[in-house]
Design brief:
- The protein has 252 residues and is of the alpha/beta class.
- It contains 8 helices and 7 strands; from the N terminus they run βαβαβαβαβαβαααβ.
- It has one domain: Rossmann fold (3-Layer(aba) Sandwich), CATH 3.40.50.720.
- It is 46% helix and 13% strand.
- Strands 3-2-1-4-5-6-7 form a 7-stranded parallel sheet, with helices on both faces.
- Helix 3 runs parallel beside helix 4.
- The longest helix has 29 residues.
- The relative contact order is 0.15.
Length: 252
């Protein structure tokens, strides 16, 4: 542990698996106290046991505004104030645009975008009062690179990118930095499951990526540590793409 986040308190949503778990592990390793969140109380408790006394479990369904506000209130009560907010929770809904159910479209926007707005509003009040804070939205390369049959997901991430920039310029002079991480393909449980079902070809994805491999949650965790740390003190309003060169490579 190098202690880059020593003494800081953080919320990481969607942090019982995948990218969120990678970020939570990195934050605890660097000295932060972390609120672990997912819809499952059982999953949250298991990760808190892994991470130890620096972690607190607050399960909540972030597609519901009342649950988002409860998460904010319980997190503030548990940690006494929040220095870092990572809005990571999100899911895709894959379907042709002409047949994407309206309920799936609305759910995706509520979870991936609207929940981030509500939670950020709840948490940033304390940051603005303190004159400091770091907010990190976990977006996606799909915020700028469209994929077929992912209309709701791409729209939600594009919206999250713009939300990042507007919040950043509003709060920069008041000490709160807002940035986004836009990952490409990362070897999460979700990707592993889709590969096992034949929905994705992991080897093909790796070949398509200029670096020749899929990313890891730990690598995204390191980026999230940097953006929350004093090393990024003059960085705000940025969408930091972490995709192994995927979106820069035009050849299919």
């Amino acid at each position: 542990m190098s202690g880059r986040l020593e003494g800081k308190s953080a919320i990481v949503t969607g942090s019982t698996k995948g990218i969120g778990l990678g970020i939570a592990r990195a934050y605890v390793r660097e000295g932060a106290k972390v609120v672990v969140n997912s819809r499952s109380a059982e999953d949250c408790a298991a990760i808190v046991r892994e991470l130890g006394p620096a972690a607190v479990a607050v399960p909540a369904d972030l597609s519901r505004s009342d649950e988002v506000r409860r998460l904010a209130a319980e997190s503030i009560a548990a940690l006494g104030g929040i220095d870092i907010l990572v809005n990571n929770a999100g899911q895709p809904r894959v379907a042709p645009s002409e047949s994407l159910p309206e309920a799936d479209y609305r759910y995706t926007l509520d979870l991936n975008l609207n929940g981030c707005f509500v939670l950020t509003q709840e948490i940033v009040q304390g940051m603005l009062a303190a004159g400091s804070g770091a907010i990190i939205h976990v977006s996606s390369m799909n915020g700028s690179v469209p994929f077929p049959q992912r209309l709701a997901y791409c729209v939600s991430k594009a919206g999250l990118n713009m939300m990042t920039k507007v919040m950043a310029i509003e709060w920069a002079a008041r000490g709160v930095r807002v940035n986004a991480i836009a990952p490409g393909y990362v070897q999460t449980e979700f990707i592993t499951m889709l590969s096992a079902r034949g929905v994705l070809d992991a080897e093909k994805l790796a070949r398509r990526t200029p670096m020749g491999r899929i990313g890891t949650p730990d690598e995204i965790g390191e980026v999230a540590v940097f953006l929350a740390s004093p090393a990024a003190s003059y960085i705000t309003g940025e969408i930091l793409t972490v995709d192994g060169g995927w979106s820069s490579y035009g050849y299919l």
